[in-house]
Structures are given as structure tokens and as C-alpha cells.
Amino acid sequence: MNAELEILSCGPAVTVQDLGRPGFLAQGLTRGGAADVLALHEGAALLGQSPDFAALEMVGMGGSFRANADIRIALTGAPMATTLDDVPIAWNASHLLPAGSILKIGGASSGTYGYLHIGGGIETPVMMGARATHLNASLGAALQVGEILPIGQDRGKTTGMTLASDDRFGGGRIRITASIQTDQFDHATRERFGSTPFTRDARGNRMGVRMQHDGDPFMAADQLSILSDVIVPGDIQIAGDGAPFVLMSECQTTGGYPRIGTVLPLDMARVAQAPAGAPISFEFVDLPQARTIEQRAALARKVLGQAVTPLLRDPYSIRDLLSYQLISGAVSATHDPSKKED
Amino acid sequence: MAEYPRIRQVGLSGLLVQFGEGMTEPANRAAIAFRAAIDAQQWTGVSETSTSLVSTFVAADLVNMPSEALLEKLQELLTKKDWYNAPLPSGRTLWEIPTLFGTDAAPQLEEAAQAAGVSSEQAITELSTARVRVLTIGFAPGQPYTGELPPHWDIPRQQALTRSVPSGALVVAIRQLIIFTNASPTGWRHVGQTAFRTFRPTSSVPIALSPGDELCFPSVTAKEYEHIQQSDLSGDGGAQRSVLT
């Protein structure tokens, strides 16, 4: 029998996500996929499996879950207060979820998108080559209470591993590079764009995130006469009100608003994770620099598995502490093991 | 004044070949024909291609592959022929999609006819005999922007949006016709209704139309339309399809 995960309760925007669905740009469908791609790689590293496996993406808050068999899980992305049968467990770590136990994932303490990974991956039916829900295209839908998700065969065994968390959950500096319409913004406007402090607006989702700022709007030379042309995720579109809008994984494939630049793929996780009100700034880097930065990031993702370390357990968090044989292997302070006993 | 065609870099996502500054039939044709030519090359490193109204996008991993190599290949291919006069690729599909014009099902036919300066009867005759091409697909999966209609159909979008037109709605503005994928608010005028589904997520061919396909919209009666709705559950909405050679 295959393992299954049951949704006992969940937030309004929990979806199945993977690395997305390439190949349909010509037919109007963007790739979609996880808002924080690095979190998928982290989950894969913690469980020692492929980053292609599907996981649950949870916006702002998680839910409660129960499996019908012992399964391995990993938690990555925006940290969310989590318990296993009411005992707190570590974020950014892998755990064993015993059959019948209740996993409760609460609200995010920082960031926006949390991820629940399962050993063997979530095996909902593949739709157009991927499992990722694409809300904007009505391909799949947010999960509902009572749904039961099939889980793939898990070839791994290790749990209790952790990865150091990073600082991508509170906004910060976003590196951008030139794109097809950057030169339609004059030099002064681009300079001002790079020196303006923004905050992440409350308006934001998997399609796009608006940035708020004080001061003049940002305008292109021919703001209104630009012909609709290709959009890629990361493009920073300047809409009619002069505020920048970073287009995310479920954006449209074409658009007629001018775009001042495009966010480097590795910094998309930082844009996605920034909670409303978080400070954001943009820094132009040239294309060769952008390439170098992305090559380094790709390498870092590849060797993430080497950064995984055993989780040091806080004795207070071990619920069945007394069942452990705590004195086994104790040594004597006076006894010298190098000397033979008489 | 920029020279066309020109090639721009799209961040680290690929290169874009633009064939014009505004929508023209030759530039649209060039973009579609050029895309087919790139697909035929099967270049390594190119992950997919697409077209917008007058441009061809070549998606490639420019993190691992320097853009110069791809740029040179595109420049060379551009010189191979006059793309503005290139024939469209063969193997495209002609779709004849039965359409109910006017009535309560498509209440803005009269208004659109007035804006185009023709009678409602004349509008139906013109729209149901016009053969238009899928210029590009966008806004929603599989949603075609088709054209071009004769110049008197260069009617503006409405200032106030229609609250919602249903899936399959045929709408008109700026010499173009769209079939809506999903129920949606729009500034385009709702002149016909089809049972054609542009996006069929559970089908083996989820997206029916491709850029370059040709469409026409033969007029049917309300009774015929009702029959189509009940008898054709494929998503084709009673459409006849044939291969263009």
C-alpha cells in the first residue's frame, strides 16, 4: 500500500508545487512552480532526494496533516511554528512523522512561503508534464480539508538532519539586470530606481508583487506606446501608476507595460519571501556579473547536500526523554581507560 | 529610429528577435516563420521558443551558455531569407468554429457594428466570413489574439469594462478577435458566442490553438448552437479542422 497524507486542516493557499512546467510559453502558459525554488532544493538536500519531487507550498500558514504510514518529512522556506503530536519540532530540518501522528504547522514567523516536503515526494497526477498547481491558469487548485495526497516510494531512511537557515525572509537587496526595455528609461530614472528604498506592498501573490515607494513615479520614455512583448518571471513592470511590480512564477507570458529590468533568478526567492512592509532595494548588475552570480548559486545548490548536518536535539524538546537510556556510555572522571583494570 | 529586425537580450532567460515596432501583418508573419525555422534547427541550449505579436523569443540558459554564440546563430539565420515575405510554416490548422452572433448570448454585436459603421446584418456577414490568423496567444492559457480584420474594424476598446464575458466568448476591438479562455472582465465587445474551449487541462492536447493557425467563425442559429453544446463534449464546440499546406 502506498503512503498517503491527509489534510486535516489547512490555510487558504496551500498548493502542490514543484520546479514548474516549461514548454508552454508559446501557448500562453508560464512555467509556474514553487515561489521559493531554493526551498525545494533545501528540502531535497535534507531528505537526500531529487529536487524534482513535488512538495506542499504554504502561504503564510500551514495546516494539520496525518499520514497512514511512517513517512519522512522536511520543513523549509519561511519558518512556521510546528509541532508533532503537540511537541515543537525544528524548522529547516528533516523528521520522522510516525503513522497516525499529527503534524501541525502554524503561521510564519518571518517570510511568506513555507514548504512541507515528503520522502518520496507528493505524487498527485502529473498535469501537462508537472504536478505544480498553476492558480492563475486554473490548473489544479488550492488544497481543501479532507483531501488525501498520494506519496511516492521513499528510498531514503535518514531523518533528524538540518541546514543552516539564511536571511532571505525579511526583504533586502535584490539584484537586477537589464532587459529588453531597460534603455527606454533614461539614465537618471534608472539611477533613482537603484537608490530608492521600497517596501513590499500588501498586494502580492504568485503572479506578481507590488513595491511601494515615496516620491515620483518611474516612467519610461514612451510609457503608453509600447507594443505587447514577451515577459519572463522576474521582470519588473512599471504599471500606469509608476510603481514597480515584480512578475512572479505565474505571471502572464506577454505584456505591454514597460519593464525597467529583471530580477536575477536566485533573488526571486527573496522577493517572494518578503512579507508586506519589508524593506526592498534594487541594485543593477551587468550581465557578465549576473552570470557569475548565478553560476555560483547553481553550484551552491548542487552541493547543498554537503551542508546538511545532524540536528542537535534540545533535551527539553525530546518528548519521550525518559525512554532514552541516558547513562549508557557514561565515563568516570577518575578512571583512565588506557590503563588496564586489575 | 531602431532598425528591424533587431535582437535584444532578455536578462539571462534568452534572446528576443523583434521584427517591428508596431503590429503589422508582415512582421507577425516574420515572427511566426522565424520561430518555425529556429525550432527546425534544434539548437542545443535552446529550451523553448515563442512568439508575441511581432517578435520571436528564444529561451535559453544564458547562465551556462554565453549569449554571443546564440546571438551569432540568430544573426546568421536572419540573413538566410527575407522573413517579412517568408511563407508561413506548413502543417498549421484551419479551424472553422460555429458561432452564435448577437442575441442575448452575445449582446454587444449591434454596438460593435455601429462602431465599425456597418449594420448588424453586415457585421455578421463580415465577421462570419473573415479568415483570421492567430497572431499570438496570451493573457490566459491558449487564448488567441487573431487578426487582422478590415480597417473599419479598428474600433477602440470600451472605456468601462464589461463585468464578465463567459468562456468561449468571441470579442472584437482594434481589428482583432479574441476567444476568451475563462470568464473574464474585458473592454472588448462581445459579438459572438462559441462552445470552443481554448484550454482543456485534462485533455491529451490541453491547448488547441497555436500561433499561425487560421480561424473562421461560421454563423449558426441559436437552435444549432444549442445542439452543438449538447452533442460535442470534446471542447471543439463543433469546430471543423483541416491542415493548411
What does this protein structure show overall?
The complex is a heterodimer of chains A (342) and B (245). Chain A folds into 2 domains: 4-167 and 305-321, no CATH class; 172-285, Cyclophilin-like (Cyclophilin), CATH 2.40.100. The N and C termini of chain A lie far apart (58 Å). By secondary structure, chain A is α+β, with helices and mostly antiparallel strands. A 7-stranded mixed β-barrel of chain A has the order 13-20-17-18-15-14-21. Chain A has 4 helices and 22 strands. Chain B is α+β, with helices and mostly antiparallel strands. Chain B has 2 domains: 6-85, Gyrase A, domain 2; 92-244, Beta Barrel (Cyclophilin). Chain B is built from 5 helices and 15 strands. Chain B has helices at residues 25-41, 67-79, 109-116, 120-129, 222-231, and strands at 6-10, 14-18, 46-51, 55-60, 92-96, 100-101, 132-137, 144-147, 162-165, 169-173, 176-179, 184-186, 189-193, 214-216, 240-244. In chain B, the strands form 3 sheets. In chain B, strands 6-13-10-11-8-7-14-5-15 form a 9-stranded mixed β-sheet. A 4-stranded antiparallel β-sheet of chain B has the order 1-2-4-3. A two-stranded antiparallel sheet of chain B has the order 9-12. In chain B, helix 3 packs across helix 4 (120-129). Chain B is elongated and about 60 Å long. The interface between A and B is large, with 37 and 46 residues.
pLDDT averaged over residues of chain B: 95
C-alpha-based Rg of chain A, rounded: 23 Å
Q: Compute the gyration radius of chain B: what is it?
A: 19 Å
CATH level-four homologous superfamily name of the largest domain in chain B: Cyclophilin-like
Structurally, the number of domains of chain A stands at 2
CATH class of the largest domain in chain B: Mainly Beta
Provide the spatial order of strands within the biggest beta sheet of chain A: 13-20-17-18-15-14-21
Q: Helical segment tally of chain A?
A: 4
